[in-house]
Write a structure and sequence with these properties.
With 51 residues, the protein is mostly helical. The chain has two helices and no strands. It has one domain (2-50).
Length: 51
């Protein structure tokens, strides 16, 4: 479920910059999704390091 929420957010963010009917929309959506997951993991690591 959390992964689906992140991927929906990636689709929404990508749609702000690229048209949904663009031929490379899915590729860019995947890249944005991976970037969001990397940011979330980085934040979790930093929060765990402080405590």
């Amino acid at each position: 479920m959390p992964a689906r929420i992140l991927l929906v957010a990636a689709g929404a963010i990508t749609a702000l910059f690229v048209a949904r009917d663009a031929p490379n929309f899915q590729v860019i959506e995947g890249m944005v999704g991976i970037a969001i997951i990397a940011v979330v993991v980085g934040v979790l690591v930093l929060l765990n390091r402080r405590g």
